[in-house]
């Protein structure tokens, strides 16, 4: 069963078309990755799922219900805060931690939708357990964290709301290879142990496809290939364009 | 010794004046922090606050001269005025600023100037342009400590404004909505990703800022009287205080207000500035700050935000 269906969506910024007729299906419980070069439309796609970018065509269905559709007179556009309340969390590109807030306050913000204070405390404890470095730095301003720590912070913050679908926008961007490896290991654990479906976009195609069950390749706003992760890894076109083989 | 006492006296006077500036500056800075927009109608909110406070106070008082009831009536009037201005602030935002949120940056600014005219002219139409006295709800005979005199009015200003600022600090740092407000001012799209309803946060910001302005207006009214254009100069100076402290920063607005009050109260006699030119001190300080530290004392460099 699919948790997310992106049905032929198009997105334009003024005269520039960022996505053209993109369709993606994400099965419940899996990890799906979307790979593509800089500017191919990866971030636009994730932002459109949470309603930060309006669709000019198509629709997005989450858990059987339409959450986004192209502007029309009949439908009222759901705002981002209402979409994420349904169980979606996005870790944005460039992490976007609240730099002037402490690690703990960032986690509190991630749990904004949770009203049960005891549950929030329990989840924070789980996060400190899962990302020990965050526990050690819980009272520090987030701006003092390294890039890798900030990425973990952003992922932990997203998990505070117990999402069913986790969207990750370039979690490895600008980080040292060992740190990236660590983060991808954590993503796999989150997916397996917490039953969180993951849709991630990455420039680091090799690691992304290795981690994923299924993958899509996006070029110039269009999906050009889709297959199982391991098949894409062995695909000649993918190897040439994204794996430097 | 005499001069030392004299300057301590100026500092006390400046502190109380500054506390009023701080209360009003908070509204400018909180709105700027979230919307990156200067609400030029904020000064007129303090005028409305003073009028509502005065009207409710006089109505409650009637012909009573009981000392205790005067004080109770005053606090009821203050709370009523805060509530009125909070609703007015939210209403103005909804009607005059929200529709322009995605427009050119100049549009809401012009809209704010329009709202300012509507409020001050509306008040002139309803209440006339004669200034009214806001009677002290207590005997305002000054008390003297070590040669420094302090009036009960000044004590009231200090107690009320410190209480307001403590409550605000607690709200912003410790409560769920307060933290959401800080998050929204730091990064609006990411706040939405947390499930925060940004429109609600913006409404709340206007409500709190306007309620604080109402308090500032009432506290200022005892000295400055109540009249339709009373918000112009006081509002402008509070804006200067917000800029000095670092616009967008809540502690900055508190600090900027106190600092400006003291500089004005001490600077004018120190530099032998005649009373009619007293206001120049604030604007001279503004120019100096803009030249040497445009982001203000506690402000952050805007480049960092990108």
Quick rundown:
Chain A has helices at residues 42-49, 80-84, 103-110, 117-130, 132-136, 147-159, 177-194, 205-211, 229-234, 236-242; strands spanning 2-13, 16-27, 31-35, 57-62, 65-69, 88-91, 165-169, 197-202, 214-219, 222-228.
Describe this structure in words.
The complex is a heterodimer of chains A (245) and B (306). Chain A is of the alpha/beta class and 245 residues long. Chain A contains 10 helices and 10 strands. In chain A, helix 3 runs parallel beside helix 6 (147-159). Chain A is globular. The two termini of chain A are 35 Å apart. In chain A, 47% of the residues are buried. In chain B, 74% of the residues lie in helices and 2% in strands. In chain B, helix 2 (42-61) crosses helix 8. Chain B contains 11 helices and 2 strands. Chain B is an all-alpha fold and 306 residues long. Chain B has a two-stranded antiparallel sheet with strand order 1-2.
Any chance you could write out the topology, listing elements then pairs?
The complex is a heterodimer of chains A (245) and B (306).
Chain A: E1 2-13, E2 16-27, E3 31-35, H1 42-49, E4 57-62, E5 65-69, H2 80-84, E6 88-91, H3 103-110, H4 117-130, H5 132-136, H6 147-159, E7 165-169, H7 177-194, E8 197-202, H8 205-211, E9 214-219, E10 222-228, H9 229-234, H10 236-242
Parallel strand pairs in A: 3-8, 3-9, 6-7, 7-8
Antiparallel strand pairs in A: 1-2, 1-4, 4-5, 9-10
Chain B: H1 2-35, H2 42-61, H3 67-97, H4 106-127, E1 143-145, E2 148-150, H5 152-174, H6 176-186, H7 188-193, H8 198-224, H9 230-245, H10 250-270, H11 279-292
Antiparallel strand pairs in B: 1-2
Low-confidence stretches of chain B: none
- The average pLDDT score of chain B comes to 92
Task: Please give the domain count of chain B.
Answer: 1
CATH class category name of chain B: Mainly Alpha
Strand order of the largest sheet of chain A: 6-7-8-3-9-10
Tally of DSSP helical segments of chain B: 11
| Major beta-sheet overview of chain A | 6 strands, mixed
The N- to C-terminal Cα distance of chain B equals 53 Å
């Amino acid at each position: 069963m699919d948790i997310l269906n992106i049905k032929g969506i198009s997105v334009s910024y003024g005269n520039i078309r960022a996505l053209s007729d993109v369709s993606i299906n994400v099965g419940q419980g899996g990890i799906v990755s979307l790979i593509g070069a800089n500017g191919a439309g990866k971030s636009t796609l994730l932002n459109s799922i949470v309603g930060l970018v309006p669709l000019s065509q198509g629709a997005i269905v989450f858990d059987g219900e339409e959450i986004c559709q192209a502007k029309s007179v009949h439908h009222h556009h759901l705002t981002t805060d209402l979409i994420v309340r349904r169980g979606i969390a996005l870790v944005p590109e460039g992490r976007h931690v609240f730099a002037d807030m402490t690690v703990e306050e960032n986690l509190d913000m991630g749990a904004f939708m949770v009203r049960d204070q005891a549950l929030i405390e329990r989840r924070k404890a789980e996060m400190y357990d899962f990302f020990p470095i965050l526990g050690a730095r819980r009272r520090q301003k987030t701006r003092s964290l390294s890039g890798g720590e900030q990425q973990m912070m952003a992922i932990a913050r997203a998990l505070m709301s117990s999402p069913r679908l986790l969207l990750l926008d370039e979690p490895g961007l600008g980080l040292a290879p060992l740190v990236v490896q660590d983060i991808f290991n954590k993503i796999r654990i989150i997916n397996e142990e917490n039953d969180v479906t993951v849709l991630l976009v990455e420039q680091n195609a090799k690691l992304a496809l290795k981690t994923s069950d299924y993958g899509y390749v996006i070029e110039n706003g269009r999906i050009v290939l889709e297959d199982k992760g391991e098949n894409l890894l062995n695909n000649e076109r993918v190897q040439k364009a994204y794996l430097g083989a | 010794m005499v001069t030392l006492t004299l300057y301590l006296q100026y500092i006390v006077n400046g502190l109380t004046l500054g506390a009023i500036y701080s209360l009003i500056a908070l509204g400018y800075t909180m709105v700027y922090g979230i919307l990156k927009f200067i609400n030029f109608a904020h000064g007129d909110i303090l005028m409305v606050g003073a009028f509502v406070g005065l009207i409710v106070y006089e109505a409650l008082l009637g012909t009573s001269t009981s000392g205790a009831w005067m004080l109770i009536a005053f606090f009821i009037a203050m709370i009523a005025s805060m509530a009125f201005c909070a609703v007015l602030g939210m209403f103005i935002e909804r009607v005059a600023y929200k529709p322009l949120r995605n427009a050119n940056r100049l549009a809401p600014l012009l809209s704010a100037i329009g709202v300012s005219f509507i409020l001050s002219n509306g008040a002139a139409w309803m209440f006339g342009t004669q200034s009214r006295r806001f009677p002290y709800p207590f005997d305002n005979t000054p008390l003297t400590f070590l040669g420094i005199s302090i009036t009960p009015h000044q004590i009231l200003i200090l107690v009320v404004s410190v209480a307001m600022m403590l409550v605000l600090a607690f709200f912003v740092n410790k409560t769920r909505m307060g933290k959401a407000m800080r998050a929204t001012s730091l990064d609006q799209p990411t706040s939405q990703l947390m499930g925060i309803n940004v429109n609600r946060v913006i409404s709340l910001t206007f409500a709190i800022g306007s309620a604080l302005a109402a308090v500032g207006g009432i506290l200022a009214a005892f000295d400055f009287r109540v009249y339709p254009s009373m918000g112009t100069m006081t509002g402008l100076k509070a804006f200067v205080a917000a800029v000095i402290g670092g616009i967008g920063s809540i502690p900055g607005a508190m600090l900027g207000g106190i600092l400006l009050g003291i500089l004005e109260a001490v600077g004018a006699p120190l530099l032998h500035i005649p009373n009619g030119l007293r206001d120049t001190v604030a604007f001279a300080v503004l120019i100096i700050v803009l030249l040497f530290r445009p982001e203000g004392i506690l402000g952050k460099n805007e480049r960092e935000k990108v």
